[in-house]
Design goal:
This protein is mainly alpha-helical. It folds into two domains: 18-161, Butyryl-CoA Dehydrogenase, subunit A, domain 3 (Up-down Bundle); 166-223. 58% of the residues lie in helices and 11% in strands. The protein has nine helices and five strands. The chain has helices at 18-35, 58-61, 65-81, 85-109, 115-121, 138-159, 163-172, 174-191, 199-207; strands at 38-45, 52-57, 129-135, 210-211, 222-223. Strands 2-1-3 form a three-stranded antiparallel sheet. Strands 4-5 form a two-stranded antiparallel sheet. α3 packs antiparallel against α4 (85-109).
Length: 224
């Protein structure tokens, strides 16, 4: 019985997109959830009536948060439709989405917010004065987690390689093909002394331009 060929572990294998999909789903969920939470609370007074408090959701403080979450959802469908280099391009797009989410989240977490921006987003009248601004850490931190998940997914897509190019380059090289066939014939002969090589090896030899029925000194066959 002919032993089954052992796969060449040096060749890159096609990897499943499932890990990247899981990360993208998690990222989209984090961004959407963060967009529905209060990021900033603005306290103001116009000098005439009672003090006023306005809550700014993530979708208000970072207007692109919800569209970016939807972009990640669309990327999941695109991931299954694209192959090869196009998937790598998709990975770059997802990395840009991650950066666009991470920057405003980090800015708020480190305290880079201004009363003027809060007043503008709260749509306060010109006579109003912002007395204080409260920021919340959890919503931007959630967005930051989503950005990190999206970035990890982009790394998986950009670094992913398939077996196609490596196998093609190996078998497109005539010298490599002949050497591989010679090795197969020699291995088959060692396994079954005095017998002809297996039919699979014979076909591989013919395809590589070798005559497996002809012998020679140290040669697996004669080149056609």
């Amino acid at each position: 019985m002919t032993a089954a060929p052992v796969p060449d572990k040096s060749l890159p294998t096609r990897r499943s997109p499932v890990p990247a999909v899981v990360l993208i789903v998690a990222a989209a969920a984090c961004l959407w959830g963060s967009s529905r939470l209060t990021w900033v609370r603005v306290h103001s007074s116009d000098g005439l009536g009672e003090a006023k408090t306005d809550s700014l959701l993530g979708s208000t403080w970072v207007a692109v948060l919800t569209p970016l979450a939807l972009t990640l959802v669309a990327a999941i469908a695109a991931l299954f439709a694209l192959r090869g280099r196009l998937r790598q391009v998709l990975g770059v797009v997802i990395a840009l989405v991650a950066a666009a989410c991470a920057v405003p989240a980090l800015a708020l977490l480190i305290g880079a917010t201004t009363d003027e921006r809060a007043k503008q987003l709260a749509e306060l009248p010109g006579r109003s004065t912002v007395t204080s601004v409260d920021t919340f850490a959890f919503p931007p931190a959630l967005a930051l987690v989503g950005a990190i998940a999206a970035f990890l997914a982009s790394l998986l897509l950009v670094r992913r390689q398939t077996a196609g190019p490596a196998m093609s380059s190996k078998y497109d090289n005539p010298a490599a093909r002949r050497a591989d066939v010679a090795r197969q014939i020699a291995d088959d002969g060692d396994d079954k002394p005095g017998e002809q090589p297996s039919e699979r090896v014979l076909w591989d030899a013919l395809d590589a331009g070798e005559d497996p029925t002809a012998g020679g000194d140290g040669e697996a066959g004669t080149r056609r």
